[in-house]
Automatic annotation (TrEMBL):
The keyword Glycoprotein does not apply. Pfam families: Nucleotid_trans. The chain crosses the membrane at residues 40-63. The lineage of its organism: Eukaryota, Viridiplantae, Streptophyta, Embryophyta, Tracheophyta. Residues 70-93 are annotated as: Disordered. It comes from the Eukaryota. Residues 158-358 form the Nucleotide-diphospho-sugar transferase domain. The keyword Transmembrane helix applies. InterPro entries: At1g28695/At4g15970-like (IPR044821), Nucl-diP-sugar_transferase (IPR005069). Keywords: Membrane, Transmembrane, Transmembrane helix. PANTHER family: EXPRESSED PROTEIN-RELATED (PTHR46038), GLYCOSYLTRANSFERASE-RELATED (PTHR46038:SF38). This is Nucleotide-diphospho-sugar transferase domain-containing protein.
């Protein structure tokens, strides 16, 4: 038994007199240790010391103190956006009733009847682009995108109706520093804070499908919208060149010359205009749901798969393809800046290549728009690989 009563003086002795303390050379000179009427042996002291050390370790390292806990990261806190290995089966998140989304859209919306060549009943609409941190920093593609609005023809007013959707905290903070209408698109279980998402990478695939999910929520608000990739420069107001009789109209990489021909026109999901009606809402939901039928494909490839299916005719969706004379890309560039509206950095891989290409294109536009009208020769602006740094 570890404890005995000394009948001579009534002291309690714990253990026997010990010659060493955990073999560290602390001998009988120090133990047993008397505390009041108690004697503590070396082994008991070792146990107490170890317990105190474990408690100290727990307090200082394992249990985070308030001073060592990082402050909440706003809407993109780690609790809401961990980085999963696979989120391809995540359930759809309808955010159409999110008060913050409603507030941002209401603040940015415009009411217009000027779509196409005719006049339509007034409708509310916004312009939407999406960014993550790779696209949002000083000198980034977002800066070029915004600069194109300020230097374009009739586009300065449009930037007031632009909603920038940020997919991570850094992008959201930068957006708030440069633009008034920013929406933080959080995704339970998903974080888009990695390296720049290359085309068709896992990060890219998650981003484009989350964006599609976001579009379906905006349509439920009854808001028409232009969707635009951020690697597009805007030269002039595109609304007069949209089709007034279309529910859904979209850009293409290669244009055949027929805006109603869906099969041979290769649609590009980076730019388009959609009306918020029942036909468009049903189609966008069908488009989003079709990702399960075509696993591993991004939204543009899935669109080019389903565009020939009977569903479009069944719901009566009116689709038009935007011509590349007004809505070009490096794959098939605008030939005449006197009529061009937008230019997309398609056929251009890598962040540096896109920045170099868009910078060159924007410089050409500024030179063109500042020239006297009589000198604006459309043939002077043929973008070549050595000029843009991208393949054409």
């Amino acid at each position: 038994m570890a404890g005995e009563v000394d009948h001579n003086n009534g002291d309690v002795v714990i253990g026997k007199k010990t010659r060493s303390f955990l073999s560290l050379g602390v001998g009988s000179r120090y133990f047993p240790l008397r505390v009041g009427r108690m004697e503590i042996s070396a082994s008991a002291a070792a146990a107490l010391g170890m317990g105190f050390f474990c408690l100290l370790l727990w307090v200082m390292v394992i249990y985070p103190s308030p001073s060592s806990t990082p402050p909440p990261a706003g809407p993109f806190s780690p609790a809401t956006s961990p980085n999963p290995e696979d989120d391809t089966k995540m359930q759809q998140h309808d955010i159409s009733e999110d008060p913050e989304l409603i507030k941002v859209v209401q603040n940015a919306k415009m009411t217009t009847t000027a779509v196409g060549k005719g006049s339509l009943p007034p409708s509310e609409m916004v312009i939407i682009t999406t960014i993550n941190k790779a696209w949002a920093e000083p000198g980034s593609i977002l800066d070029l995108f915004l600069e194109s609005f300020w230097s374009g023809d009739g586009t300065q007013e449009l930037v007031r109706h632009l909603v920038i959707v940020s997919l991570d905290q850094k992008a959201h903070q930068y957006c708030q520093a440069v633009h008034p209408h920013c929406y933080a698109l959080t995704t339970p279980g998903v974080s888009f804070t990695g390296t720049p998402a290359t085309f068709k990478s896992d990060e890219f695939m998650r981003m484009v499908w989350r964006r599609m999910e976001f579009y379906t929520s905006v349509l439920k608000l009854g808001i028409d919208f232009v969707f635009t990739d951020v690697d597009i420069v805007w030269f002039r107001n595109p609304f007069p060149h949209f089709h007034e009789d279309a529910d859904f109209q979209i850009a293409c990489d290669i244009y055949t010359g027929d805006d109603s021909e869906l099969h041979y026109n290769s649609m590009n999901g980076g730019f388009g205009f959609v009306r918020s009606n029942d036909r468009a809402r049903r189609f966008f939901q069908h488009w989003y749901d079709s990702r399960e039928r075509f696993p591993g494909m991004h939204e543009q490839d899935v669109l080019n798969k389903i565009k020939d299916e009977p569903f479009i005719d069944e719901i009566g969706l009116r689709v038009k393809v935007l011509d590349t004379d007004h809505f070009g890309g490096i794959c098939q560039p605008i030939k005449d800046l006197n009529v061009g509206c937008t230019m997309h950095a398609t056929c251009c891989i890598g962040m540096e290549s896109k920045i170099r290409a868009l910078t060159a294109i924007l410089q050409d536009w500024k030179h063109f728009s500042s020239s006297p009208p009589e000198s604006r020769n459309s043939t002077s602006f043929a973008w070549k690989p050595e000029r843009t740094g991208c393949w054409i």
